[in-house]
């Protein structure tokens, strides 16, 4: 294997033609595990993103996973329970190599306090969705989603363009760090507040953030200049959003768009209250978690009140999937849910057609493999405006982190067609190595989350978690290489269940069969989920693409 250095000295990016495991499928999953650490936020503690989202339960579990992936045969399946390997069973060569269940707790017990207790005892870990399932690709993972949201708002409110518009947001972590680049790609002037100078610096270094302002006055003057010139610009500001947002309200400045992507879902390990420095908050995580929780919630109340004030003043305000409204409502902000969730407000029509965050990673480590697949995308889908626009933008703007990867929102049929063509390119050696296909858990049939993905479903089925469970069982039966069922941990405990999947295009006929079954069935279920909830777009997709939905 030819490893490349990453930002973290001890966690190089995998790559090269040499196999260490007994086959490419096993090697691929091992490289994906290595990759999530190479691009993670705090790999020394196995943390990848979303405050506490971990790649494995602990270092002992990590070593055992690596050893098993190196030694296992193709007709075996590794069982992982919340980041810890617990068994290696005999299956068959068409079965998944890895099956995981991460952070699932029984209903009445699925609460943050119980999670923290279980975590302390070493019995569970939060897999942060794509962290524990080794599918995280750095901040690029949500960038197209964020960009599409901005463009939907541009169409709805600003005549199709965000040129000369001001976006205010917070959070420059693993996922939130995509916001400055998405804002700049949408041609806006975007101000991103983060309490941690290191996070701002990291986004600056990897090219996601243009500059870091000295203070709020400086930041606002930079933004004002960019707005007046109609210039795309991203500005970072080190500060606490619970102070900065109210300060901007007090100055009677109203941004055009306001959101937030701090780790508000986790009041202990994520959000930092304005009453504490970062160092104090970190100490309190172990010493006084309950006090920290109370102070975080009080700050979130001020933070969300400012967001509501911006909304009343005419800004387009939305929740970006971090439970900030839920935390504020529990803190007494009765109208917190006047702020809409991004899924329902902007993206649901796409999910109805199972168009969602599909992604692939070049296991060779070669950027040229992604470039070739970019060309293929343009050749295969010349009339798909979302895809053609995105590929051009992504090529120009997105620096690679870790294994070269691409995200592109593709739908039913498109995902399978692309994956199979790529498998053929692997077989003909036009690509330098196999390619892993995966997607975010926030995908059509894959997630039940009544405060994010499934909020306001047409038939009221918001809280029903059968869909991701069916998805996972179906994907296991559809020959996927890795399947995971995942529920919320930390502050997300009791809020969500999701399913993740990875399939390796290894250039073999069996790989082709796996991609065909797994990718087709995954999006089939996505369309069915929305058709069953009564969405016209999904029913139209059923009719147009002959989706096998049984309608009663
Ligand atoms: P992260 O933990 O890597 O980063 C969170 C950032 O918030 C950190 O940089 C932290 O310093 C900053 N922060 C915390 N409190 C702050 C405060 N009061 N003021 C300013 N900055 C503060 O998390 P992440 O991976 O970036 O995810 C952020 C949130 O978005 C999480 O709640 C996550 O679950 C959610 N999320 C949403 C989507 C989506 O599709 N919309 C996808 C992934 C994650």
From TrEMBL:
Which parts of the sequence belong to the Urocanase Rossmann-like domain?
A: 138-346
- Tell me which SUPFAM superfamilies the record gives: Urocanase
Q: In which pathway does it act?
A: Amino-acid degradation; L-histidine degradation into L-glutamate; N-formimidoyl-L-glutamate from L-histidine: step 2/3
Q: What's one GO BP annotation on this UniProt entry? A: L-histidine catabolic process to glutamate and formate
Q: Which reaction does it catalyse?
A: 4-imidazolone-5-propanoate = trans-urocanate + H2O
Where located?
A: Cytoplasm
Q: Keyword Cytoplasm on this protein? A: yes
Q: Which UniProt keywords apply?
A: Cytoplasm, Histidine metabolism, Lyase, NAD
According to the UniProt entry, its GO molecular function terms are: urocanate hydratase activity
Q: Which residues bind NAD(+)?
A: 174-176, 194, 199, 240-241, 261-265, 271-272, 490
Database matches in Pfam families: Urocanase, Urocanase_C, Urocanase_N
Q: How is the cofactor bound?
A: Binds 1 NAD(+) per subunit.
Supply the name of the protein. Urocanate hydratase
Q: Which organism is it from?
A: Gellertiella hungarica
């Amino acid at each position: 294997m030819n490893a490349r250095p990453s930002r973290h000295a001890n966690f190089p990016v995998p790559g090269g033609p040499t196999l260490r495991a007994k086959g490419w499928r096993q090697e691929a999953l091992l490289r994906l595990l290595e990759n999530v650490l190479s691009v993670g936020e705090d790999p020394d503690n196995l943390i990848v993103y979303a405050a506490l989202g971990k790649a494995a339960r602990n270092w002992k579990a990590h070593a055992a996973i690596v050893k098993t992936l190196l030694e296992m045969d193709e007709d075996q399946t590794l069982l992982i329970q919340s980041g810890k390997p617990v068994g290696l069973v005999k299956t068959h060569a068409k079965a998944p190599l890895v099956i995981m269940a991460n952070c699932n707790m029984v209903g009445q017990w699925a609460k943050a306090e119980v999670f923290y207790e279980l975590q302390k005892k070493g019995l569970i870990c939060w897999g942060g969705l794509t962290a524990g399932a080794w599918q995280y690709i750095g901040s690029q993972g949500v960038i197209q989603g964020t960009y599409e949201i901005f463009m939907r708002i541009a169409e709805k409110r600003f005549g199709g363009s965000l040129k000369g518009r001001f976006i205010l947001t917070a959070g420059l972590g693993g996922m939130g760090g995509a916001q400055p680049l998405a804002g700049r790609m949408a041609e806006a002037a975007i101000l991103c507040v983060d309490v941690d100078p290191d996070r701002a610096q990291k986004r600056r270094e990897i090219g996601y953030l243009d500059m870091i302002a000295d203070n709020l006055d400086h930041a606002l003057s930079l933004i004002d200049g960019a707005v007046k010139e109609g210039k795309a610009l991203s500005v970072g500001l080190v500060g606490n959003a619970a102070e900065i947002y109210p300060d901007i309200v007090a100055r009677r400045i109203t941004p055009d768009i306001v959101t937030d992507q701090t780790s508000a879902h986790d009041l202990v390990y994520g959000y930092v209250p304005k009453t504490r420095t970062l160092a104090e908050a970190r100490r309190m995580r172990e010493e006084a978690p309950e006090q920290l929780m109370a102070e975080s919630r009080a700050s979130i109340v001020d933070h969300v009140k400012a967001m509501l004030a911006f909304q009343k003043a005419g800004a387009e305000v939305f929740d970006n999937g971090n439970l900030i409204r839920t935390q504020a409502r529990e803190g007494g902000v009765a109208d917190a849910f006047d702020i809409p969730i991004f899924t329902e407000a902007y993206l649901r029509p796409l999910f109805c057609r199972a168009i969602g965050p599909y992604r692939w990673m070049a296991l060779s480590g070669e950027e040229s493999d992604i470039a070739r697949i970019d060309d293929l995308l343009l050749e295969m889908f010349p009339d798909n405006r979302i895809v053609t626009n995105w590929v051009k933008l992504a090529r120009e703007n997105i620096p690679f982190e870790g294994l070269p990867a691409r995200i592109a929102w593709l739908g039913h049929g498109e995902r399978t067609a692309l994956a199979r063509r790529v498998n053929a390119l692997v077989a003909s050696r036009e690509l330098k190595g196999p390619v892993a296909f995966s997607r975010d858990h926030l995908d059509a049939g894959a997630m039940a989350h009544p405060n994010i993905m499934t909020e306001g479903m047409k038939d009221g089925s918001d809280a029903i978690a059968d869909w991701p469970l069916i998805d996972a069982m179906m994907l296991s039966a559809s020959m996927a290489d890795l399947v995971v069922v995942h529920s919320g941990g930390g502050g997300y405990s009791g809020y969500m269940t999701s399913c993740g999947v990875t399939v390796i295009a290894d250039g073999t006929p069996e790989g082709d069969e796996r991609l065909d079954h797994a990718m087709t069935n995954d999006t089939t279920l996505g369309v069915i989920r929305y058709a069953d909830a009564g969405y016209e777009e999904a029913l139209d997709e059923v009719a147009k693409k002959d989706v096998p939905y049984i309608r009663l």
